[in-house]
Amino acid sequence: MHNHFELFGLTPAFSLEKDLLEKAYRDIQSKVHPDRFAHAGDAERRASLQWTTRVNEAFQILKNPVARAKHLLELHGVDVAFETNTAMPPEFLMQQMELREALEEATEKKNSQSLDRLRSDLRREEAVLEKQIADAIDGRKDYQGAAGLVRKLMFLDRLDEEIDLAYEATD
Amino acid sequence: MALLQISEPGQSPAPHEQRLAVGIDLGTTNSLVATVRNGSATVLPDALGRPLLPSIVRYLPGGKVEVGYPAQARQADDPKNTIVSVKRFMGRGLRDVAHVEAAPYDFVDAPGMVQIRTLAGVKSPVEISAEILKVLRERAELSLGGNLSGAVITVPAYFDDAQRQATKDAGKLAGLNVLRLLNEPTAAAIAYGLDNAAEGIYAVYDLGGGTFDLSILKLSKGVFEVVATSGDSMLGGDDFDQRLFCWVVEEAKLPPLGPRDMRLLQVKSREAKEALTFHSESSINARLSSGEFVDLAIDTETFCRITQTLVHKTLGPMRKALRDAGLTPDEVKGVVMVGGATRMPQIQRAVAEFFRRDPLNNLDPDKVVAVGAAMQADVLAGNKPQGEDWLLLDVIPLSLGIETMGGLTEKIIPRNSTIPAARAQEFTTFKDGQTGMSFHVVQGERELVSDCRSLARFELKGIPPMVAGAARVRVTFQVDADGLLSVGSKETTSGVEASVTVKPSYGLADADIERMLRDSFQHAKEDVHTRALAEQRVEGQRLLEATRSALQADKNLLSADEAAAIEKAMAGLESLLSAKDHRAIKRAADALNHATEDFAARRMDEGVRRALAGRKIGSL
After folding, report:
1. Domain spanning B237-310: which superfamily?
2. Global ipTM
3. Nearest CA-CA partner of B103 in B262, B212, B246
């Protein structure tokens, strides 16, 4: 599989210098983007499309904490297995259920202030988890332990998407 | 006197002359063409000095077609053959078109895209739009004194795949080499950003005649990055006219109207709307065919009241785009206003209130899109030296997906993904021994397929019989830089493949375009062969030029044999360019393209290597 960090000349790590990533992304794009080859022949246009597509995909993965963590763990041979491994600690599941209930209530009442609150709570929790994932992957090299944390982060991600839908319903 | 310039050894300046490239704003109400001359972008006016071309096409007996002001002048007399706001029908079925009952046309509900019966025959929106584009192409060629090398055509950011493909087809039909479809708010951001050296987060609020877009961009030196886009491709200035028209019908207690009276009152409503931008009161006077005289006065307050829901409808997409971008209104440094409809004071107020800042109105909202498109065309044509050009990173507005069991949508490429983008997803069989799978490609945000736009259906056949769930069918979506989708599918254990450019199910097959081209030549001076020959020659020249400059820059990436093979293919093409056989030129061009495949890939790799040079490459 591709190592997306290598593509951008970055050291594989969960904590990432966003500026470096962005700069490398733009530097590569400015060489390969289809706009540079609008007047070129088919062969060059095709090569440009393939490169740009790959660079965009890699950039999306590295920008997103869940995708970045999954990619890192895969590079270390650990499958996050979100689809099959759904066993989560009971207190985490309890907390998730409470959050979802709060979301349902806010959606029903079309209350965008409660949605705002819910979202900022969620952001805080995400930040805590991301810190823990960085410690596990970059610090302790505990990839199995990190996989459990990434699964939690994915739960929060889904909730985040549902909050988006709830906002749309209140618009 | 300017000093003579000499280039760095080994880095030759662009060996070609400036290519003639234009930007075209193909609008619902008005269309424009602009170009960059002597470094600055200008809109090209018609012979009478008028910059706008009303997007109105009238079909007359004897194959004559009127476009623009002459058609506009006769629209109330000949409403069935005079098509206004054709952009609303691009890539749309009859069911998708708003206010069908108020449009005085003979619609034909063709599969995929609605068509209109005129005295010149049944016309598709693509053909009608091509008439507008042809006039703009001729205007530009006359004004620039040569054939156009390419054009950038703008589309609303919120246009779906079907609408984009229809626009590109119209460009081809009009004889344009479409360099790129560019999103209208992005074009405006280029024009605004370059003019004002803007840096930071900007929003573009684009309310045109028939569409609404809201894009959020990150502007930094040399990069225009679209972060999120949202909108409503069925909301525009037209709807304000329509609301006013309904108000007139109600106030004057008019019986159901014929096409002529309907068009007359629609025109009067539009004029009254425009007057209300500058005056607190306006009047609507018209004599109907029954002899009845309509005489009504309307003030701004009433107009604001009856259009309040329309203004409100633009707020939802604004909030959505900000959420998608993860931003609050305070983080937006400026709001660029685009589209004639943003002149309405109630729109200005609503935007100012939402972003808590005065919107930016220092560019002409009618021209800014065409100007930005011209600037981008100049870059795409290769007229700007490296270092002076910029990078444009745009997104797809609506998620793309596949229908799964139970009429649900599985999203494959989410909205606001930077393009070009590709994504693959695996599917499997439902029954034992199943040998075929049919796929339904959809675009939209809703969970249910029935709420999304259907783009294409295709089948993968010949899967070897296996138990249910054993087959591995990989479906790949590829979106190119124009935002256009192609889909491929492959059963990975057996290697059976099927692919489809998501086009024929709603739009025009290549054969349709060919037929339309032939039809259009029946009334033109040139013939199909001459045109094809001219196009192949231009294409061949361009390919030779591109290959020559590639060799000049990177010949060291090739072995002597490889270089010789490419040069041989070049000579082959060159020798045929003056001949009269367009098919032979095409074959030679294809051969040259084939011969340069490896070279192109190596050049691209080399480009990336250079971009990252000096950086340490990370490892595990």
Report:
1. ATPase, substrate binding domain, subdomain 4 (3.90.640.10)
2. 0.90
3. B262
